[in-house]
Design goal:
Chain lengths: 262, 273
């Protein structure tokens, strides 16, 4: 019996795959041209980056007190916004879970609302809340809250939909009410996933709360913007290091907690 | 001695426990099913005009090969699966057509034990048993043992004690063995204070020894409490040992309805041929 020919290493693309590759390559070139990506300009910029980094060191510890206070405020915004967001996410997520929602209209309405909260960037929400409630950390907290609802609402709903249907059937069989089934059989099963999503949300909120200050929504962002605008690069480096430590501590604590949740 | 009635053949003997006779004798009927039909797209009729009635305190085994319709029939009797045609009378009340609170109220009086236990794995045995109280309590008081009243917790512990697991009350059920989990499921059913208990292959996921122990305990508890028991089983020896009456299904049709004492394993194996 003769041995078959050795197969080709790569399959020849079909007309559809070939068109897809060509369109993708075309879009990449178009985008690079559109934003002016140029190796020459990047190389020219390297000495400038080195010069700015040089002017940042050593960090200036003179305003360490006010920076620490702004950092605490940033973290408070993250915690408060995330906490309110998580609490509001749960009822919305229940209504947005296909097997738990009382009616398809309610299901689609809540899913659309959650999508809206998720797809509009937190910076845009912050701008709106600065107009609504004025400058300061409350605007940032409300922006984080909506962003958390968008994130947790979706992941809570997915976690609940993925739970084992057996306990639900058992509670339905014994005549339990819908709310009883949700809180007795669904939420306890989805709880580890809820905690994971909530911790990711807190990490995300901590990073976001730094940026929100740039539009006047409280936190350390405004300190960073002022330092950069006034060319106080040594002070800016102190702020960046403080932000780095905060984000790192939150991420490490979150990772440690997630490992312990089963 | 009563003899089997094969529905698809001419009756060779009197029906062992005919529904009319039960009612005529003034015996309470806990479950009566008439003309029950259920089909699934692509699979045809799963239940084909099923009819029988079960008297209070009886223990009945539903037997038949895989796909014969046993589980569908049991679930249909509680409308966990919605039958297309037919009439179900449960504990003296018409179940067909009931909705909302009326349906929940009827279901609350029937314990249902599932093959895979259907417990909430991350919760304690006590919390899972407390869930049984949702049959008669609304609000969050029966969502978790920590929220339940002292009386409810005490009753749940008593139910666990009856299945021999009081000392594991606070153990997470996903850390229990299969046999222990099924005992917790039985305790949850007892917590409902049921008049009737249905069990779908209650020992199918257990090893033979655990299966024997659980079945023995289950049948004894139901007998002691005077609770009507309907269970499906592939273990013909369990059907013969723990049921007074056998109902056999083949391809969705009721083909056997007889006293278990009238049958032996060799005869019952014909159902699986």
């Amino acid at each position: 019996m003769s041995m078959p020919d050795l197969p080709q290493r790569l399959r020849r693309p079909g007309p559809f795959a070939f068109s897809l590759y060509a369109v993708s390559a075309g879009m990449l070139v178009w985008s690079f041209q559109g934003v002016g990506v140029s190796l020459e300009r990047i190389m020219d910029g390297v000495p400038n980056i080195a010069r700015i980094l040089g002017r940042m060191f050593p960090p200036d510890p003179d305003r360490l007190g006010p920076i620490a206070l702004a950092l605490v405020e940033t973290f408070q915004m993250a915690i408060a916004g995330t906490a309110i967001g998580i609490v509001l996410s749960l009822p919305l997520a229940i209504l947005a879970t296909p097997s738990l929602s009382p009616h398809p209209v309610v299901l689609h309405a809540t899913r659309s609302l959650i999508s809206l909260f998720r797809t509009v960037p937190d910076l845009v929400w912050a701008l709106l809340f600065v107009i609504a409630v004025g400058l300061g950390p409350l605007a940032g907290t409300l922006a984080i809250m909506l962003d958390t609802i968008g994130f947790c609402g979706r992941f809570f709903a997915e976690a609940m939909e993925d739970t084992d249907k057996g306990p639900r059937e058992a509670l339905t069989a014994l005549g339990a009410r819908r709310l009883g089934i949700v809180f007795s059989a669904v939420v306890p099963q989805a709880l580890p996933s809820f905690i994971n999503s909530a911790l990711f949300s807190l990490e995300k909120a901590t990073r976001a709360s730094v940026i929100l200050g740039l539009v006047g929504a409280g936190g350390i962002g405004i300190e960073l913007k002022v330092s950069m605008d006034l060319f106080l690069y040594q002070q800016a480096s102190t702020i960046i290091i403080a932000i780095f430590i905060l984000v790192l501590v939150v991420e490490q604590a979150s990772a440690w907690l997630r490992q312990r949740v089963q | 001695m009563q003899t089997a009635r094969r529905i698809d053949q001419p009756a060779r003997a009197p029906i062992p426990v005919p529904p009319v006779a039960i009612q005529a004798a003034g015996v309470t009927v806990d479950l009566a099913v008439e003309g029950l039909c259920k089909s699934y797209p692509g699979r045809g009729l799963i239940l084909d005009r099923i009819g029988f009635s079960i008297a209070r305190g009886q223990s009945v085994a539903l037997i038949g090969a895989n796909g014969a319709g046993k589980s569908t029939l049991l679930r249909s009797c509680l409308r966990l699966i919605e039958p297309e045609l037919g009439r179900i009378t449960l504990l003296g009340e018409e179940l067909t057509g009931q909705k909302g609170q009326a349906l929940r109220r009827l279901r609350a009086r029937v314990g249902f034990v599932f093959q895979r236990h259907n417990l909430v794995g991350r919760l304690s045995a006590l919390s899972n048993v407390v869930h049984g109280a949702q049959a008669r309590q609304s609000g969050p008081w029966a969502w978790h043992q920590a929220l339940a009243s002292r009386a409810t917790r005490q009753e749940a512990l008593h139910c666990l004690d009856r299945v021999g697991l009081a000392d594991l009350a606070m153990e997470r059920v996903d850390r229990l063995s299969g046999g222990q989990s099924q005992r917790v499921a039985i305790a949850r059913a007892l917590m409902q204070r049921p008049a009737l208990v249905m069990a779908d292959e209650p020992v199918a996921s257990l090893d033979p020894r655990a299966g024997e122990e659980v079945m023995e305990l289950f049948a004894r508890l139901m007998r002691d409490e005077g609770i009507t028991l309907v269970f499906t089983s592939h273990h013909l020896n369990h059907a013969l040992a723990y049921a007074e009456r056998l109902i056999g299904l083949r391809a969705g049709k009721l083909v056997l309805d007889c006293a278990s004492s009238s049958q032996d394993i060799a005869q019952l194996r014909e159902l699986y041929a």
